[in-house]
Amino acid sequence: MTPPLPAEWAPHRAIWVGWPSHAEYWFEPFEQAQDEVEALVRALAGPGREQVRLMVGAPELAEGVRARFADLANVEVVAGVFGDVWLRDTGPLFWAGSKTAAAFRFNGWGEKYVMPGDETVAEQIGVHSGATLSWNDFVMEGGSLDHDGEGTVLTTRQCLLNPNRNPSWNQDEAVATAALAAAVGAKKVLWLGDGLLNDHTDGHVDNLARFVAPGVVACPIAWGRNDPNAEVYDAVARDLSVMTDAAGRKIHVLRIPSPGLVLDEDERPIPASHMNFLIANGAVIVPTYGDDRAADMACQALKEAFPDREIIPLPSNAILTGGGSFHCISQQEPE
After folding, report:
1. Catalytic residue list
2. 146-147 vs 152-156, strand pairing mode
3. Which of 109, 201, 211, 228 is 20 to 30 A (C-alpha) from 274?
4. In terms of C-beta density within 10 A (0-12 exposed, 13-18 middle, 19 or more buried), how is residue 79 classed?
5. Are 328 and 88 in contact (CB under 8 A)?
6. Is the pLDDT of residue 225 over 90?
7. 90-125 b/e with 16+ CB inside 10 Å = b?
């Protein structure tokens, strides 16, 4: 029987972070995105926190990035090859001890963003970390799942059952659940519906709902009158409130203020989310998007969920232009 993947709040031996490496993909926000990732890395590498493995997607940039972090002994710059920074989706998912990890086929988020090197990231991380990879013959990204460490998995139908990933599953929850049981030790899958508006990932759950403890799931509540995802947030909360986890516990729902309406340069809503927080050793890093009041309330709520960790808000506006935030660009190796 496949053991469950650890919860993100379990102690880490290291954490991977992707470094923005290709100006041609980021355009104008490129340098700002690098600055935001640097702030994240420095927060993660604080005293008593993480060994950071910072993966650079163009080997010729590695020395310059090493010089940028020369003052931090616990930041290891790894020269790799990837199309973009979203290691949560392209990298493997580690079991406890990080000697083994689950890996999956990757098809560019439903063949929308196929970039050279992304399909090899799991193998690169496995080799560098010394982990043996267990390959699964279906398409999946790590950001489409969230885990409680006890075998309960959160996901969305919009993404995991999307025919642009695994058409043979034919929208069949039972087939997908069996695949997750074998691949990541899922004992029970909690199926949500749609993700955020204009989410390029087709509704990754790490932008929508996250375990913060066994039996406790955080999800947003709309902030401001024009929040484009208000109905989605309320539907998620209603669905979760009648669910139970693998241990039979009724799910307790923790509502956390969303960032509200955030627009791109063309005035279109983009999927900004406080749910893309990253749980680290001793800290929770929370992405913010310019609304200090919304960010402060989200951090206060997360402090209740994680009273023994420092809550660190950091801006993520430039990273968001690429389609994600802190959780999306990282992947933990549990102890």
Report:
1. 328
2. antiparallel
3. 109
4. middle
5. yes
6. no
7. bbbbbbeebeebbbbebbbbbeebeeebbbebbebb
Tell me the two tokens of residue 321.
Answer: 């232009």
Structure confidence at residue 189 (pLDDT): 98
Nearest CA to 287 among 266, 304, 270?
270
Distances in Å between the alpha carbon of 80 and those of 15, 40, 98, 130, 304? Answer: 16, 20, 20, 15, 38
Q: Which residues contact 63 (CB under 8 A, 6 or more apart)?
A: none
Quote the pTM value: 0.97
Rounded to whole angstroms, how far apart are CA atoms 21 and 80? 10
Q: Considering only CA atoms, which of 228, 229, 274, 284 is closest in space to residue 254?
A: 274
Nearest alpha carbon to residue 278 among 253, 311, 300, 305: 311
Order of strands, edge to edge, in the sheet holding 146-147? 146-147, 152-156, 188-192
Report the alpha-carbon distance of residue 334 to residue 8 in Å, rounded.
8
Phi then psi for residue 79, to 5 deg, are: -75, 115
Phi and psi at residue 247, to the nearest 5°: -90, 0
pLDDT digits 0-9 by tens, 254-278: 999 999 999 998 899 999 999 999 9
> Does the pLDDT value for residue 125 go beyond 90?
yes
For the sheet containing 252-257, what is the strand order?
Answer: 210-213, 216-221, 252-257
Residue 123: partners with Cβ closer than 8 Å, 6 or more residues away: 103, 133
Residue 22 buriedness (CB in 10 A; 0-12 / 13-18 / 19+): middle
